[in-house]
Each structure stands twice: as structure tokens, then as C-alpha cells.
Amino acid sequence: MTRPKGLVLDFGGVLTTPLLPAVLAFEQGEGLPEGALITGLYLDQEMVRRTHELERGALTQAEWNADAGRALGIAPDNLIGRVFAGLRPEQSVIAAAAAARRAGIRVGILSNSVGLAPWNLYEGYDLDRLYDAVVISEQHGMRKPDAEIFELMLKMLDLPAADCVFVDDTEQYLAPAAELGMATVHAREPRETIARLEALLGVPLADGA
User: Fold this and answer.
1) Inter-CA distances, 168 with 12, 23, 50, 123, Å
2) By its UniProt entry, which NCBIfam families does this protein fall under (predicted)?
3) Among residues 151, 111, 159, 107, which one has the least CA distance to residue 133?
4) Helices 61-72 & 45-56 angle (0-180, nearest 10)
């Protein structure tokens, strides 16, 4: 079997610590009941639509903050930044990606944006220098799970789908990648993710080896 030549990583929840603990900490800090964010934003169809607009760049972060603040009954100021304030770099996966690149594997980042201003989720991660291709959804007017955004990433990596592995912590985004022919990994725990990538890529990745 031919070893993959490309690795495509989601950002939030893959290169960062998990999203759920950050969301729970936000709810607690705001005095909201547990689950309020998911109920108010991700089970409400209008807010789902607005979030998809944000990810495609059709809505500004400030506009989303105002809508979400009203939906939750809290202050809108820097709301996205407050929600994700607890995220930290997942150093083991970042090191594994660097090890993959050193082994000659092309590594891309494919992320659904939460807006880039005034708060930038990607600040400090040096994505343009550390990875071979970076696709942030709002900059291209499309979002996962649109097949076109995966095709764009493959074009930027200059690799066919069959030569690539895609990693995401959101399971529903794996199917369109698989349909294109990419191998997929559902990121649930960093050590498990890295072990599965080592098996697929055929190179040591743990601890940046």
C-alpha cells in the first residue's frame, strides 16, 4: 500500500485543546446554566444559519457577537473571544505535524473560521510558516462540509485525495473527505490521534520524534 503524502488537519480541537471544556468554562464564568451555549446557538436554527454565514465570511465577527449576545442574554463584547478564551495549543499534535513535515509529508490546515477580527483564533500559531497550505473558510466563501473546500485544500497541497489523510474533531466533516477518497481520523484524544496517524503515515510522530 502506498503511504499517504499529505496530512490535512482541522484547527480548533485538533491543534488546540478540546472545545467543550472551554465552552463549559465560559458558561460557568458568565453565570449561564451548563449547555446554554449549545442550546442557544447550535440548536437554534436561526443562530445555526448565522454561524454558517460567519464561517463563510458573509457575517462579521462583531455582527455574530451581537446576535449571539442577544440569544444568550449576555454582553456581546468580544463574545467569540470570551467563548474560546480557554483554548490552548495542543503541543503534542503540533509537534506531530512538524515531525510529519520533516519526514517529507505535506501538511495543510483546513478550518471553519469564527471570524478573524477583532479577535483572531489563529494568532500565535504561525500557520503560514509552519504548514504547507492553510485554508480558513471565511477567506474563500465556503465551509466544511462543502466538498469544494476540501478540493481547494488538495489543489493547494498539489496532491490527489487518495494520497491524503484528514483529521477533524467534528465527525460530520469526515464523510465528505472520505467521499473524495481521503483517509480520515476522528480526533478525540491526542495520543490516540497521533498513534493512528503514525500507522497511516508510516512515520514516527509522538513527541515530535
Assistant:
1) 9, 18, 22, 20
2) HAD-SF-IA-v3
3) 107
4) 160
Query: Is the CB of residue 207 less than 8 Å from the CB of residue 190?
Result: no
Q: What distance in Å separates the CA atoms of residue 175 and residue 182, rounded to the nearest whole number?
A: 9
List the grid coordinates of 137: 473558510
If 0-12 CB within 10 Å is exposed, 13-18 middle and 19+ buried, where does residue 51 land? buried
Instruction: Give the pLDDT confidence score for residue 209 in this predicted structure.
Output: 40
Residue holding cell 489563529? 122
For CA atoms 35, 85, 79, 118, the dihedral sign is negative
**pLDDT at residue 194 greater than cutoff 70:** yes
Give the domain 6-17+88-208 fold.
Rossmann fold (3.40.50)
The predicted-structure confidence for 74-95, as pLDDT tens digits, reads as follows 999 999 999 999 999 999 999 9
Closest CA to 79 of 52, 121, 119, 125: 119
The domain limits of the chain are 6-17+88-208, 19-83
d(CA 5, CA 23): 35
